[in-house]
Amino acid sequence: MPQLSMRAIREAMPEGGLFGGGSWRWSPEPLVLPKKLLRELEGLGHVLASFQRASDAIYRRSAKGKLPPWIAEWLDRGKPEWLLKAQLSGEQAENFPRVIRPDLLLTDEGFSLTEIDSVPGGIGVTAWLSAQYEKAGFSVLGGARGMIDGFSQVLPEKGVVMIADEAADYRPEMQWLVEQCGGGRSVERAEEMNADDRREIYRFFECFDWANIPALPDFVARGGQITAPLKPHLEEKLWLALFHLPGLQGLWKKELRGAHRERLQQLIPQGWALRDVKLPPEAALPGLGVHSWQEVMEMSQKERRLVLKISGFDPTAWGSRGVYIGHDLPSTEWREHIQHALDDQLHSWVMQTFREASLIAHPVYLADGSVIKQPGRVRLCPYYFTDASGLTKLHGCLATIVPADKKKIHGMSDGILTVVSGHESLVTS
After folding, report:
1. Residue 307: inside a domain
2. Backbone phi, then psi, for 239, in 5-degree steps?
3. Cα atoms found within 13 Å of the Cα of residue 9, Cβ hemisphere only
C-alpha cells in the first residue's frame, strides 16, 4: 500500500512553509469515504451555486421593495451605504462567486452544512497536499493539479490576488499557488490597491475589512470588477436560517428546483434568526417549542444542543471565534451570549441545532515518525470552481480531522490536515 512519508513531506515543503499562523499534523494517507458520499460531493457544487443565485434573487427583490423589506434589512446590518449600493448595481446582477467552499461536518446521517465560503483559505494547501499524495501513489479527488487548474480558470493570466493584511497568514499558500499556475499571476497587498487598476483581480479579503483598503470604494465607483463579487449578503450565515423560515418557504419553492431544495433541507440544520421581539401569546419559535429567547436562555444543558453564531461582516465571523455551543458552556455564559446577540444592532446572529460529527480513526504521524490511528471528527471542505461557461465542478477536497473531544471542528495544531481519496471505501453509508 502506498504511503506519504514524513521525509517526502519535509523535502517537498516550500521554503517558508504554506501557512503563517500555525501548524497541523500529517497523515501518511488521504481520507477514504464511502462511494455514496463521494457521489454527493461531486454533485453538490451545482446545488450550492443554485442556492447562491436564489439567495441573491430574493435579496435583490427585497431591497427593491418587491418582497418584504425586512429580508434585506436583516442582511444589510452594519454595512456601509456604498457597499450596499454596489451589490445592487446592474453590473453585479449576474456576477457570482466562482469559488464555492462549503464546510461540511461528516455525521452518522451524512453531511451537515455549517457555512458556505466564497473567499476561502486552504486552496493552496489543498493543491499542495493533493500533489504530494498523488506523487506517493494515491488517487485523490481532483487529481494532482485539480486545484491549480481550477484556480487558473478563475484568475486569468497576468491576474493578481489581492490579499489583505488581516488574512496575511494565507499569503504563503497563495504565493505558492500562483507560482504553480504561472502565466504572470501575482500576489499583492490589498491595502495598496489602486482605484484605476484594471487587471483581473481575485480578492482574498472579507468585505468587513473594506475600511483598511482605501481605494476599494473608488475602485468600485469607477467600474472596477473583482472576483468574488462584492456581494456581502452572500457571506452571511443568516441565509442558512432564512432557508428554514416558514414564511419564506413559498419563495424557496419558486427559486429552487425541487431536487436542490430537498438536498439543502437535508444538509442545512434547522436554524433561527435572533431578534428581540415579543411573540403573540399563541406563537412559538418554530422547531424549538418555546415562546421567547429568554426561555432558550434558561434551557438545561441537555436541552441546549444548539449553536449560536454571528452571521457575518465581522472578524469573528470566520473560523470558530464567533461560535458558541450551548451544551459546552456554563448557563451564565450561554445567557450572556444570547443576550449580546439580541442586543447587537450591527450584526445579525443565527442559532442552529447542533449536529455531532461522527467518530472515525485515521492514521497520523507522531513526532518520532511513527504512525498511530487517532480517533477524531471530520470537517470536509470541497472546493468547487466555476469556469467561463458557467459549469461548477469539484476540483479537490480538504479534510480536517480534530481530536474526538473537540466540539468545534476547525484548523488546529493537534488536528490532521489531509485530502479526500478518489477511491471509495468498502464501508457502505
Report:
1. yes
2. -60, -30
3. 19
Q: Is 233 helix (H, G, I), strand (E, B) or coil?
A: helix
Q: Look up residue 281 and give its amino acid.
A: P
160, three cell numbers: 493578481
**Phi-psi label, residue 78: left if phi above 0, alpha if psi -120 to 50, beta otherwise:** left
pLDDT in tens, 136-157: 999 999 999 999 999 999 999 9
Grid coordinates representing 90 are 446592474
DSSP-derived letter for residue 144 is T
Instruction: Give bridge partners of residue 384 from the DSSP assignment.
Output: 100, 394
Which residue range(s) make up the domain with 234?
6-238+358-422
Same domain, residue pair 131 and 67: yes
Name residue, grid cell 515518525. Answer: 369
> Are residue 79 and residue 146 in the same domain, yes or no?
yes
When pLDDT is cut at 50, 70 and 90, the band that residue 86 belongs to is very high
Cell numbers that stand for 395 in this block: 476540483
- Grid cell listed for 340: 449580546
Strand partners, 402: 377
- Of 104, 107, 128, the residue nearest 116 (C-alpha): 104
CB 18 within 8 A of CB 26: no
φ, ψ at 376 (rounded to 5°): -170, 175
State the number of CA atoms in the 13 A half-sphere of 342 facing the CB: 15
Least-confidence region, from 90-94, 232-236, 238-242, 405-409:
405-409
